Amino acid sequence: MTTTRLSQWLTRRQPLVLGLFRMVLGLLFASEGAATLFGVLNRKAGPVGDWPFWYAGVIELTCGVLVLLGLATRGAAFLSSGAMAFAYFTEHQPDGVFPLQNGGLAPVLFCWGFLLLVFFGPGALSVAGLLGRENTARPAPSRLAEPSR
């Protein structure tokens, strides 16, 4: 398989892989919220209304489920990305510059993963796409393709 054919094969599958990425990211984020709110997955539940942790749990569970399903993906991803940036800079960054030093690797990865979804949309396999409510990402034309003659 030539490099051009491999690139075309991968490009055609971008929406599917983006949709799978969205679902995994949403599931992981929702599980963080469920653990915070309900004390599941070996975590103790926080007190109701405790700032900012309880509210973060609500955002994580709600937006995680929306992203998982592909409903209002861009808005939910934008809110999630901002919440994770807030979490990183208020809770982790004061303990060190780098995420590996301060235990903030998960918020950083969530923040950037959700920011990707803000710009690229839900990809394939979204409920909104099935209902025709949201434009799913389509492969961008390759600039590396050979010029037309």
TL;DR of this structure?
By secondary structure, the chain is mainly alpha-helical.
Describe this entry's structure for a reader.
Helices cover about 65% and strands about 0% of the residues. The longest helix has 25 residues, at about 15-40. By secondary structure, the protein is mainly α. The two termini are about 25 Å apart. The mean pLDDT is about 90. It is built from 7 helices and no strands.
Structural class: mainly alpha
Shape, principal axes of CA atoms: globular
Count of helical regions: 7
Order of helices and strands: HHHHHHH
Low-pLDDT runs of 5+ residues are none
pLDDT averaged over residues? 90
Helical fraction equals: 55-70%
Please state the oligomeric state of the protein chains shown. Answer: single chain
How far from one another are the termini?
A: 23 Å
Keywords, separated by commas or semicolons:
149 residues, mainly alpha, 7 helices, 65% helix
